[in-house]
Amino acid sequence: MTASQETIDQICKLLEPFNSTGKVLTADTEISSDLNIDSVAVMDFVMEVEDHFDIEIPLNVVSETHSIGDLASVVDARVKKD
Amino acid sequence: MIDLLDKHKAIAERHARMMTMGVNAVGLTNDKILSPTRAMINGHETILAGTNNYMGITFDEDCVKAGQDAMAEFGTGTTGSRIANGSYALHKELEAELAKFLKRKHCIVFTTGYQANLGMMSGLAGPKDTIFLDADSHSSIYDGCTLSGAKLVRFRHNDAADLDKRLTRSEGEEGGRLVVVEGIYSMLGDRAPLADFVEVKKKHGFQLLADEAHSFGVLGPHGRGLADEAGLENDIDFIVGTFSKSVGAIGGFGAGNHPLFETLRYAMRPYMFTASSSPASIATSLAAIKKLAAEPERRDRLRANSARLFAGFRALGFDMGCDMVSPVIAVKCTDEVSTIAMWNALLEAGVYVNIALPPGTPNKLCLLRCSVSAAHSFDDIDKIIALFGKVVASRAAA
User: Fold this and answer.
1) For the domain that residue A57 is a member of, what is the CATH number?
2) Which residues of A fall within a CB distance of 8 Å from B141?
3) pLDDT below 50 — which residues of chain A?
4) Which of B106, B33, B60, B45 is nearest to B292 (CA)?
5) In the beta sheet, which residues pair with residue B4?
6) Whole-angstrom Cα Rg for chain B
7) Helices marked H in chain B — which ranges?
8) Of residues B154, B156, B359, nearest to A59 (C-beta)
9) CB–CB of A40 and B362 under 8 A?
10) Do B135 and A47 touch (CB under 8 A)?
11) Taking Cα atoms as reference points, which of B195, B191, B159 lies closest to residue B328?
């Protein structure tokens, strides 16, 4: 499933405070490896995403989500489900 | 061929940077342990203020003798699991004594505290269930949750309203719900607001587990932990704890009143597929728990020492991990490099504390973490304060 650009944009905005590398964020950006964000910070960031969209993203799903695009697809699917 | 260890190169580089600044802060060698509060490190007698030896019981004569006698009577090891080889009478005796101490109907002991969390999380929750865990939970809780195969939902640290919100989001889903909190959080020393969580429990209905690893033997009028202190033991379904802190040995336990609790022995892989605790360790734990029950003055001394260190650090103007007296007292530092430098300077000056760095800490904090012991003298505490004043306060000012 392709994520909507609007969701990708919102996730990029939420991720910006965690991005200390100065890299430009895109759907292909790998959240942890490209931005050098440790595992705890990734979980903290996902909490922000959960609250922004008022959805639940279990940790089991987070561990299989690598890029911003992956995460946006999860968000879209869960927002739709609710 | 892809070298499997290539992925750890960044860790190796980070460790190498630390080593250029002095001693290996995460792999220190104690050449000799002199007492619960003293060791010989790099040829110097050093005050130990980072060993979680809360009751200072590791050299207690009765505990040492109990371990020696058990080794002579039962041998050096059990050579297998309790499922395969059977229990020793000592295991049963320890479980009965601990159940009595905790005022719980059932208690199961594990070989380590880490395995106690692995076993309890994976025994209680399965793939159809959901575990709600505090964001600052210890790694053994995270790993136990992963082993369970349950759906994992993380709530904001010590935030009952946030838990409430996440429970509401998952309303109507199949399976049971387990909420996990800790008595004292190991890095910052703060406590779970149990009364708030119990209110959420009444609203939503779930089973509640408290990991009392750092609070067992330490908090409460009877030393049973945070639930004892808060007067909320009846609202906690399951307790987990360890023997490696206030008990001064090694091992862990799970306890509860549930009529099917004993069945967990046949459902917890970290209990079933590992060798049971050694006779010496079990006997030492048994002797120490009797002491915790009989000698409440140890808790009084720990409280007095903790209050003195807390007040001393506050007077130095430190930003600390939590705003109440706790046997875990962490000083927040600004960055990794200066924290490593200060840790080295403290060690050189004669005091060992823990260094805690991200991702092992919440909110990317760099900490110099002290754990207080009942065996520290006021003189020890004053020396620790003075050394922190010399090393940490002066650097913070600079």
Assistant:
1) 1.10.1200.10
2) none
3) none
4) B60
5) none
6) 21
7) 9-20, 61-74, 82-85, 89-102, 113-124, 139-148, 160-169, 194-204, 226-230, 269-272, 279-294, 297-315, 336-349, 378-388, 394-397
8) B154
9) yes
10) yes
11) B191
Report the amino acid identity of residue B58: T
Q: How many CB pairs under 8 A join A and B?
A: 33
B14-48+296-397: CATH number: 3.90.1150.10
Give residue A82's pLDDT: 57
Give the bridge partners for B333, in sequence order: B366
How many CA atoms, within 13 angstroms, populate the side-chain half-sphere of residue B158? Answer: 12
pLDDT tens, B366-379?
999 999 999 999 99
Q: What is the residue type of B387?
A: L
Q: For chain B, which ranges sit under pLDDT 50?
A: 397-398
Closest by Cβ to B359, choosing from A38, A54, A56: A38
Cα separation, B171 vs B203, whole angstroms: 12
DSSP state of B31: S
What lies within 8 Å, CB to CB, of A64 at 6+ separation is: A70
Tell me which residue range forms the domain holding A45: 5-81
Select from B153, B174, B335 the residue whose CB has the most chain A CBs within 10 Å, as the one to mutate to test that interface: B153
What pLDDT sits at residue B27?
Answer: 86
Write the CA distances from A37 to A63, B25, B337, integer angstroms.
Answer: 14, 23, 18
Q: Report phi then psi at A8, rounded to 5.
A: -60, -45
ipTM over 0.95: no
C-beta of residue A52 within 8 angstroms of C-beta of residue A14: yes
Q: Which of B136, B152, B185 to mutate to test the interface with A (most CBs of A within 10 A)?
A: B152
Tokens of A27: 């759907």
CA distance A40 to chain B (A): 6
**Confidence at residue B398, expressed as pLDDT on a 0 to 100 scale:** 43
Which candidate, B51, B47, B53, B54, places its Cα nearest to that of B347?
B47
Give A53's contacts (C-beta < 8 A, 6+ positions apart).
Answer: A10, A75, A78, A79
Domains: count for chain A: 1
Rounded to a whole number, what is the distance in Å from the CA of A54 to chain B's nearest CA?
8
What top-level class would CATH report for the domain B61-294?
alpha beta
B 67-126 near A (Cβ less than 8 A): none
| Domain ranges for chain B | 14-48+296-397, 61-294
